[in-house]
Task: structure prediction
Amino acid sequence: MTERILLKTPAEIFDNGWKSLEVILTDQNIHIGKDRISLREIEDVEKVNINGKKAIRIKKDRDVIISFPEKLYDQIFKFLAYNLKSDRFAVYFLSPATIGGVIVRDSKWEKGYLSITEEAIWFLSPSKQIRIPFKNLGSVDKDVRTVGGKERLVLVVGHVDKGEVVTSFILCPETTLEMLEDYLKRLIEKHKPEVKLTEIEEQVAVMLYSGLDSVNIENILGISTDDLNKCFDKLVDLGLARVVKIRKELELTPKGIALVNTIMKKGRR
Amino acid sequence: MISLPRVLIVDDTAFMRKLLRNILFSGGFDIVGEAENGKQAVEMYKQLKPDLVMLDIVMPEMNGIEALKAIKQIDPNAKVIMCTAVGQEKIVKAAIKLGARGYIVKPFQAQKVIEEAKKVLGIS
Result:
């Protein structure tokens, strides 16, 4: 069967630095310079940023990172997302339904697909291509929502997006819904860290989620800096948190105290 | 002197009340009272007349939906944000129908709570 060429464009591939080449997109393959990747062999794609340059990571046996001209970037990403190797289910989805616990009022139901690749689940529609890596999935539950004026059973998926907890809804025939719920629950279980936290540690995790800093956390819980540090270390060791800043606490030396006295006297003049 | 928006926090867990108090205080709100159930909330609303109530739903004695009803009877213009782990649509709808101005699902992010509270109070 002959390939139908859809697009030819200059592009750059990241391989120990950026190298220019031509990319040809056909209905069956993506030709990157002399290499050819069958669309049906692409395991996942992802938008990435390499040293300030927007690019697309194509996962096959190894990662291929290509930067396309800006005007074609979204179009090519959408094409690849729709045509890569995946299990795909026709669904209606609403994403995001809530962000950070707050209902997103202008979000609308979209007709499209739930696509499951090697690394992520996707919500695909002509206007949205939302990729949720497995490690970012948090929860899945059934709930009743009003869709098109009727009460319908939907799946509520909790996931993390750019550091914020988002929920999205999926609507599809009930037999598919049951199967998807079971599948997503198993995925979440597989990627869930096995942890046992004390009540205080759980509260610290909740406060970190809310965006509180260490001083506030100490004040709220009435615990010492040492105790909080032990708690932080445990969360970091378990892979539940990462260190973003180390705060310095200082005490003035006699030289510093003398300087402050001078500063105060200056103000009195 | 600028008067800060006055908030009543209602939640049955001390930890959640502390967390909300801290978040709202840092966002420029004056926490005028804290209640640990719906019944207390209604009494405190009568006394304090706060600008905003952050109201949990699942609580002993009187739940948040009943408390919302009672507060709205006292003051139909009361501004209430439901702040709860219950995200079921029928509960959200019931709260909105009863006059809740906002709905926040726990766990929440501080910035979102502040934004929602400001939006409900019409503060830019």
Notes: The beta strands of chain B are 6-10, 30-35, 52-55, 80-84, 102-105. DSSP finds five helices and five strands in chain B.
